[in-house]
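Deliverable D4.2, example record:
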Amino acid sequence: MKNKKKKTKKSRGGENKNPRTQREDSGLGQWGLEPPKIYRSDQRLNDFSNAERNRQRKDNSKNNKTIQQQRIDENKRRKQKKITRKIIRCTALALGIVAVVTVLSLTVLFKIQTISINGNERYSKQEIMAVLPIEKQKNLVLADTKSAKSKLEENLPYIYNADIRRKFPSTINVNITETPKIYSIKNADKTYTLLDDRLKVLENSSAKKPKKATAIKKAEIKSAVPGQEVQFKNKKTADNLIILINAVQSMKLDKISAVCSVDINNNYIIYDSRITIKLGETDGIEDKINSAFAAIEKIEEQNPLAEGELTVGTGKQIYFTEK
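Output generated by the structure prediction step:
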C-alpha cells in the first residue's frame, strides 16, 4: 500500500496549524471570540517593560503633581503669614492709639469747666452744689453720675429725680425733677410724716400738713428716715399702698383725699372727703375703681353732696350706704 502524505495547509502567517488548534479556533469562532495569543518569551519581556515604563510615568506624574501642590500650599502659607503679621501690626497700632487717647482723656483732656443745674425750685443751686460729689477741674470721663444721682435724691429728699449727664468736652448737666405728689401720715404726737408716691420719706415730724397732700390712713410707722423708704410695722402695708397709689395716679383721679390699707383684704380710698370706696383685695383694682366711679356718677345725679360708704363686692356688685 502506498502511503499518501496529507498535505497541510499553510496559515496566513506562514505557519502550519495542527488539527487540535484548528478545532479550538473553529469552536471559539462560533461564539465570536478570538483564540488565545501565544506570546514568545521576548514578547512577554517587552510587554513587562512597557508596563513598567507606564507605571513609572504615572508615578512621575503623581510626584510632579505632589510637588506642585506642595509649592502651592507653601505659597498659601507664606501669604497667610504675611496677612497675619499685617493684622497683628495694625491691631498693635490701634491699641497703642487707643491707649494714648485714653491716657490723655483721663489726665489732660476733658476737664470739667461748667456744672449746669436746671429745674430746681425748693433747693438753691448752692444747696445742690454742696451735696453734688462732682467738682470743677475734675475729669469729665471719670465723673460718677450714678453715685451723684443717688446722693442728691437721698440727701435732698424733695428731689424726685436727678438726671445727670456729661456734655463733652467740659460740661455736666444736672436736671432736677422735684416731688410732684405728696402723701402724709399723721403721727400720734399730731405731727406729720411726708412721703412721695414711692414712699420715700420727705420729712419726718413736720408740724403742718401740706394743703395738697393726700392722706395715708391707719398705717403704723416703724421707722421714717428722710431720703429713705418708710418702714411700716405691717410689711404688706407698703405693697398695698403702692398698688393703690399707682392706680389712682394712672387713672388721673384728682379728688382722692385719702388712701388706706388695713390688711390684704381691707383696702379703700376716700373720694372728695365724702365717699369711702371699699375695694377689698387689690386684685383687679382699676376695674373695681371704674365700677365705683360709674356708681358715684349716678349717686351724684340725685345728690351732688352725698356722703357715705360704697362697697365694691365680688362680681362688681355695688352697695352704697348713705350717711
